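User: Could you check the structure of this?
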Amino acid sequence: MPLAAHAQQAADALTGPAADYPIVLGDPFVIDGQTFTPVDTMNYDRVGYIAADEEGGGGVTGAHKTLPLPSYVEVTSLETGRTILVRLERRGPMTIDRLLALSPGALAQLGAIDGAPIRIRRVNPPEEHRAMLRQGEEAPLRMDTPASLVEVLKRRLPDAGSASLRDPRQDAVTGREPDTATIPAIDPSADLPAPGESRSVTTEASEQNDSQELTLVKIAEPDPVPAIDDAEQFNPTLPTPSDRGGFVVQLGAFSVRANAERLANKIDGFITPSGSLSLVRVGPFASREKAAQALAKLQGAGYRDALIQTAE
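Assistant: Sure, the predicted structure tokens are below.
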């Protein structure tokens, strides 16, 4: 094989899609008496504080205690609402007071300093954005989080450490279609907290046994974040649907049809039956890019578990 071809293969191994695999978890470790167990969790969503990672180099990278390496997260500044995409490549920060460590390049793009409050969500970005981060470049900024939602998230911040934003009912959710015994346990209409009622906050260590992926069943109501007052609701303007569109954004799967209809009316969406479930969707959109724009706006409006799917 020519030398140039060997060189290209070596470069692809470092920056191509194969560089994201295999993902590494590693063994449990202890920081200040607390055990952290790395786990491949998709529905990871927390608020906390960042640390500066001077060893991170010039790329937009981060260090995390438990998420797979590498993996990708959206990091939102809870001071400005700015949101960036970060590639997690290292373990850290080695203190229980900080949730995430960011490289100088990541801190610069986020416009934040050591100790700033943040939100971190694990995401599955498009390959073109993954490639930019692998090459040490900045991925495009994500849609800014609305000020009203930032204020809600800030109220979830603990004085130190971090707090989960995940709805505990997601512990019963898997990528498989639920059976009749499981559906009542994850029905969003059941056991809802009263307005203003506080939700329990779990520590990061306490949720490390949750390794289930969310693919079909998504809890759309209520939002895991405390409900925003009607006066604060963010009503996004979505891209125009297309009759020939091949992509939709799915917001939830409901066992109770009335709940699905309520959400569909609220977002001007439609319902697709799937066995015993009613899937709430918006679209269809002419391209994945249009669907991604709609997804970003819906997630910014509080529908964090929305996802893009191919139109049926």
